[in-house]
Amino acid sequence: FKLVSYILKLVLTAVILYFVFRGLELRSVLENMMRLSVGVILLLILGSVLRHLIQLTAWRMSLRINPAYVPDLRAELHSYLIGLPLAFAFPGGFAAMGRIFWVKNSSHIDSALAFVVERGFLTWATVTFAATAALLYFPGISPLWSLPLYLMLVTLPLWSKYLFYFWKQGEPFRAHYAKSAPCLTLLQIVAALIALTQYWLILNSIQHISWVDNFKLMSLTTFSNTLPITIGGLGLRESFAIHFLKNAGFVASEAISATFSLFLIQDVTPALIGLCVLWKKRN
Length: 283
Description:
Elements: H1 2-21, H2 26-34, H3 38-63, H4 73-86, H5 108-137, H6 143-154, H7 156-159, H8 171-206, H9 211-222, H10 236-245, H11 252-280
Helix pairs in contact: 2-11, 3-5, 3-8, 4-11, 5-6, 5-8, 5-9, 8-9, 8-11, 9-10, 10-11
């Protein structure tokens, strides 16, 4: 079943990419990417390094939710890097959970819990930013139901610790989770702001766009990362970018060049490094 699901989603990724690139000249996309100055590229690389350091820190903090876990920085770093290429194995990045087999813990289940916590805060930040952008972008949304849901979403890190009461075996983790939740929340907010600033730098290399407009449009675009239906978010992210950025005057080739540029710097390059680590530790 997993193999069939993977093949179907791989086909879906290819189909979406076909329709995205149909009628576009690949040359125009590459030309837009080549227009990035050395200074902008260096800032993008710096931002990507900071984001990965933030995610590594979030992974390490999530592991420490288990009071029986013995910290090992080397293993934590290797497991994080190995998870980067694994994220491309299945849509939604779920295969990145394979990193739990490269870190020692009291059990693989406890490491899996750490992965779920880390991914949970990452997803929360993405959805919260998208929800904030949606309230600004779609003024016709009724506040009667949208604001209560929005407040529940924004405050989720504050009350999520009470979910451990419904899990009898989770009692030892609750206190450590409650202490870590505020820091994990802040880390993912900073990571999201860095990503949005990176997009702003790329888009401004093509044509002017304010940071606020960039926040609204790219927050809605990055929401596609939470939809596990394509490999590495390819195709779906580009479709969202084309749809939303056209309202700011960006043509399809410019929108695609923005998402592809950051994808190559922030996702593909680190994944290649992680692949080297995985190859060395394959046994």
